[in-house]
Amino acid sequence: MRNLTKRQSEILSFIEEYRSINGYPPSVREIAKRFSIKSPSGAKKHIDALVKKGYLKRGKGARTIRGERFYSDNVRMVPVIGKVAAGIPILAVENVIGEVPLPEKLSEGKEVFILQIEGDSMVNAGIENGDYIVVKGQQTAENGDIVVAIIDGDATVKRFFRKGKTIILQPENENMKPIEVKRGDFTIAGKVISVIKMLNGKHSIL
Amino acid sequence: MRNLTKRQSEILSFIEEYRSINGYPPSVREIAKRFSIKSPSGAKKHIDALVKKGYLKRGKGARTIRGERFYSDNVRMVPVIGKVAAGIPILAVENVIGEVPLPEKLSEGKEVFILQIEGDSMVNAGIENGDYIVVKGQQTAENGDIVVAIIDGDATVKRFFRKGKTIILQPENENMKPIEVKRGDFTIAGKVISVIKMLNGKHSIL
DNA sequence: TCTTATAGTATACACTTGTTCACCTATTTA
DNA sequence: TAAATAGGTGAACAAGTGTATACTATAAGA
């Protein structure tokens, strides 16, 4: 990546901003208009320079300016689950207290939901009381995965291990002991794919 | 939002996917081609239906299809900053490696950006190597805030304290000592408002 | 039965858009 | 000094693109 002139940098910023706001890139003439350049060829020179320096790419046809960076801007609405009521499936509408739009990489797969953590059993994994976890709904897990497990109707977050026929749910807290599950009323609700910590005032994601 | 027909749903998905891959939406004829519709007006009918049902909006000119749910006002595109190059302002385009849409509560204010953490100096605050922090750009801070500080061109994340005239940058790691800053080349880039931990495969938010 | 919505074909047209070419002026570099 | 780079103007043109119109056909509802 070579250095940009002040003008080129301004124009690149405008293209990014325009695209971010509108969802599609500006036309050459719109760029020219924004910078009071009176001829489309004037703006084109800048675009060509930005392409040459590796900041932009061009497709065929109208409005096909493309930033070299990858834009992961698919957004999916993800339900936020409140206190899980006993006997009601975790994703049932009764448990949903809100919805949050999350980007693709934070909401991979289809059955994704958000839970707020109560308790300190996973502090050593960086998951603290009040944090939100993004959970990918699945019924299986591999050794070492952090999972949301339902034991006798109560949801709990632990690290999952299977040793032969017994399943061990391991807290990440030196003051707490692992839970050994022997096929009681036990299901895996999902796997934790990311953690969101709110440090602002209300500590709320909604 | 009214229901979509199977065909309309397919076409909406294609538009979203195309835009996600290319950075700009498809033209009417490209949509027609993809679905072996032999006339542009055939594809246009579907677009009109999707607009009517509230899933798409149209601008003026070529390739100005806009997905309605991507750009609801409670989502804001937030730049992801790569390695901060010396001498270049942290938010300059040269440092930006991508963009991620974040919900309102995760992107409050205007000058918000995302940084990836290098190092373990804040582990006791639940901020670990590889985590992403959402930073609200501001030049001041209050005692106890976790801030991104620039010292001699290097960006560092620490807890901020001011005692009289000296500023103390406190790591959250028992193995590290606090840094005392005496008004050298020191600026605050922003305050950390949330932390995003990626536990999935690639640990990448992009 | 009539109406509406969905889905598609074919043709035509106007406007948007990208691009090229010639020409101009500074500033920087070899 | 000559050459390259950056920045800009103006006119003209070809291709891409959106849209309108007319026509056909099927399925669902009132």
Furnish the topology, listing elements before pairings.
The structure is a homodimer of 206-residue chains.
Chain A: H1 6-22, H2 28-34, H3 40-52, E1 56-58, E2 65-67, E3 75-81, E4 96-103, E5 112-116, E6 132-137, E7 146-151, E8 154-163, E9 166-170, E10 179-181, E11 186-198
Parallel strand pairs in A: 3-5
Antiparallel strand pairs in A: 1-2, 3-4, 5-6, 6-11, 7-8, 7-11, 8-9, 9-10
Helix pairs in contact in A: 1-3, 2-3
Chain A binds a DNA duplex (30 and 30 nucleotides) through α3.
What key attributes describe this structure?
homodimer, 206 residues, alpha+beta, Arc Repressor Mutant, subunit A, Umud Fragment, subunit A, 2 domains, 9-stranded mixed β-sheet, two-stranded antiparallel sheet, 3 helices, 11 strands, DNA-binding
